[in-house]
Amino acid sequence: MADAVRGAEDLRQAADQLAARLPSALAPLARMAFNYRWCWTLGGSDLFAAVDADRWEVCGHNPVRLLQEAPTLALERAAADRTLIQQAYSLEECIAVECSRPPQVEGIDPERPVAFLCAEYGVHGSLPVYAGGLGVLAGDLLKAASDSGLPLVAVGLLYSQGYFRQRMDISGWQHEYWVESDPPRLPGALVTRDGLEPLVIHVPIRGRQVATQIWRFAVGRVPLFLLDTDLPENDPVDRWITSRLYVGDRDTRLAQYALLGIGGVRALRAVGVEPGVLHLNEGHPALAPLELAAADVACGASFDEALEAARARTVFTTHTPVPAGNETYPAEQMQRVFSGLDERLGVDWERILGLARVDPGNRDEPPGMTALGLRVSRARNGVSRRHGGVARSIWRPVFGVSKENDVPIGHVTNGVHLPTWMAEPIRRLLDAQLGPGWESRSLAPDTWAKIADVPDEELWRIRCELRAGLVEYVHQRATLDRLARGESADYVAMASRAFDPDHLTIGFARRLATYKRLHLLSRDLPRALRLLRGSRDVQFLMAGKAHPSDDGAKRVVQQLFETRGAPLVGEHIAYLHDYDLRMARHLVSGCDVWVNVPRPPLEASGTSGMKAAMNGVLNISVLDGWWAEAHDGTHGWAISGEVDDNVEAQDDRDAQALLDILEHEVIPLFYERDADGIPRAWVRQMKASIRAGALGFSARRMVRDYVDRAYLADT
After folding, report:
1. pLDDT grade, residue 575 (50/70/90)?
2. Closest-CA residue to 530 (of 663, 340, 368, 336)
3. 324, 396, 629, 702: which is deepest, by most CB within 10 A?
4. Smallest Cα–Cα separation from 384: which of 625, 122, 140, 75?
5. In a 3-state reduction of DSSP, which class is residue 575?
6. Rg (alpha carbons) of the chain, rounded to whole number
7. DSSP E strand boundaries for 499-572
């Protein structure tokens, strides 16, 4: 399927053109650079780094830029390295074999694959079209679909400036800036009609036909098509549509939703894909089923018939119970941006707007994309068991039923891509302990029977190795961050001696929003500081970005910065700037404990804790999202997930619960060592954490559930 649609030959030509500029021995690297399968293949990243380690870092681990920019001497040295070239050919063969396997999911016709539409994709740091959990989840789903042999194609937008970069000033206030991604230097290719002229589609937005080109990227066996309006034939306003992810201007955001939904369907047809299932990941692409319906109306079907046919092919996932994540817009703004949609569907605007309202007949209610997504789909789900219940409660009025259990919204709990997020030392240890191919058998409980037999000494050695690597990373990053903020020389110097590779390391890193409650860590500041002065050392790492318009979340971080003058804080606590995928991998594998304290029930899933778990990191989390399913007392700690309308009292209570767990359970357990220096009870929990994370919360399991509960389900 992947090679049968447009763009595959364009990727091959791009790889050949890059190879032609390199010493001939490096041709395998040029070919691998255009398929992200290398990034979750053991040794893939090391192979590119071996060409020029410094340039690899400067290029943000973008293999195309590396091979374009590496000095001639470095390329020649790499080409003369027989071991490197042998490894390159071997890795290329492994990837080729993997990508050529036939589809393995019964019931999904490769000629009519699943089409996954999402506003962002966190496939890899070198493709900056993601903001946070939604995008990382989408990237993990694509990788797992490739691993599982699910016929799937994906559509998104190619943002020329991506999501914002973060800089903190000396007061702790967040500042945003954007960087051009330079699409021609990304590991993708423009889809062409004939190998020469770009394939261009036109999408009706704001009464204009906006020219749109299509880029193809390869995520293993999954083609990812990203739409781009930055073309000279468009006016500046339309070129700006694909400028920034989650741009602040609401009119532009609606234009992005039109491009993703309407343009996404048109792009699929232009590249030769007629999907059997349309999977809308959040409300952003909710116009896609209406575009399917418009095509049927043009062929003579009635609107009701066309809509029902489109609905029968559509599944919808809602990811957030937070009101800000379920945007609504003035009706007249939607009519202006989506101009002409009524004519193509053969109905008046009130009929369309009614689909996007909770109460279709209430003309005073602003329409929204989430309500539209729910109405134009046949299967709908939240992203954890608890979130499914929350979604049923929120959206019950849409379906006109009296009981929440009758609301047709289920759940598919999120999962994370094990080969991406499990650190290589742990993967190699499990290769030896569980046998070759264990990742493909990871959903079978029997696979994990031998996890208890992993030598405690070996697993603890790897935990210490990963923590030491994180501490080295923190020394460098924290020093540079403090210098960039303009901190005093003494405070900068603390970063170079801060953090000890043998000390308990606690992480809190995620998209910053007020409901995530970063402030719980300092709500009882005197008690929290006493932990730092204890006889057993504790060190905290924090990172995260607040949305540019979320001043409340920015103030929370700023208040945290106000504590940095207290004794020991500068040496035991670090806030790292510009949280991204690369930093996340260091943190979720190197920390000993992962903290997640959202205000329940506002955590839809919480995938960072899953990533940490499969690295043997223990979670302290509110019983919300995934942790309400995962916690069993054997691999972490829980804080009550009960809802309390008195948020101040709840925050006080949960802050004390967090500190109680740290002081009385976590710290003693971590430092309780036997004669060999091994914390046996801690290591037992590490093993249980790895098993629970990899068995129950992997993206491979999530893909299987989507197939069973949504793609092939009779709803």
Report:
1. confident
2. 663
3. 702
4. 625
5. strand
6. 25
7. 504-509, 538-543
- Residue 324 pLDDT > 70, yes or no? no
Average pLDDT across the chain, whole number: 93
Strand order in the sheet with 538-543: 573-576, 538-543, 504-509, 593-596, 618-622, 636-639
pLDDT band at 519 (very low <50, low <70, confident <90, very high): confident
- Residue that the structure tokens 């019931």 belong to: 107
CA gap 255, 249 in Å, rounded: 10
Angle between helix 72-79 and 82-100 (nearest 10): 80
Strand partners, 538: 504
Q: Where are the domains of the chain?
A: 8-100, 114-414+705-711, 418-437+454-697
How does 342-381 read in b/e, with b if 16+ C-beta sit within 10 Å?
Answer: bebbebebeebbbbbbbebeeeebbbbbbbbbbbbbbbbb
Chain centroid, CA 328 distance in Å:
24
Greatest extent of the chain over all pairs of C-alpha atoms, in Å: 80
Homologous superfamily of the 418-437+454-697 domain (CATH): Glycogen Phosphorylase B; (3.40.50.2000)
Instruction: Locate 83 and state its tokens.
Output: 């071991």
Within 448-524, residue ranges assigned H as helices are: 456-485, 489-497
How far apart are alpha carbons 434 and 436 in whole angstroms? Answer: 7
Whether this prediction's pTM lies above 0.85 is answered by: yes
Inter-residue contact 412 to 381 (CB < 8 Å): yes
Q: Give mean pLDDT, residues 664-671.
A: 95
Looking at residue 67, its pLDDT comes to: 97
Q: CA–CA separation, 23 vs 449, rounded Å? A: 48
Supply angle C-alpha 624, 572, 579, rounded to 5.
55
Res. 2 pLDDT band, cuts 50 70 90? low
- Residue 629 tokens, joined: 């399913």
Question: What's residue 273's pLDDT?
Answer: 96
Rounded Cα gap, residues 223 and 35, in angstroms: 10
Contact 608, 195 (CB under 8 A): no
Span 258-292, pLDDT tens digits = 999 999 999 999 999 999 999 999 999 999 999 99
Residue range 145-156: mean pLDDT, rounded: 96
Beta-carbon contacts of residue 526 (< 8 Å; ≥ 6 apart): none
Q: Is the pLDDT of residue 564 over 90?
A: no
Strands 593-596 and 573-576: unpaired
For residue 49, CA distances in Å to 16, 18, 128, 271, 275 come to 21, 17, 20, 34, 38
Mean pLDDT of 202-219: 97
By the 8 A CB rule, do 572 and 563 touch?
no
Domain 114-414+705-711 matches domain 418-437+454-697 at the CATH topology level: yes
Q: Which residues contact 232 (CB under 8 A, 6 or more apart)?
A: none
Query: Residue 614: is it exposed, middle or buried by C-beta count within 10 angstroms (0-12/13-18/19+)?
Result: buried
Split at pLDDT 50, 70, 90, the class of 18 is: very high
Q: What is residue 194's predicted lDDT score, i.e. its pLDDT?
A: 86
Topology of the domain comprising 114-414+705-711: Rossmann fold (3.40.50)
Identify the sign of the CA torsion 356, 357, 360, 364. negative
> What's residue 687's pLDDT?
97
Residue 402 CB contacts under 8 Å (≥ 6 apart), including other chains: none
Contacts of 154 (CB under 8 A, 6+ apart): 115, 116, 117, 118, 121, 138, 142, 219, 222, 223, 224, 225
- Residue 576 tokens, joined: 């790292």
Q: Is the pLDDT of residue 523 over 90?
A: no
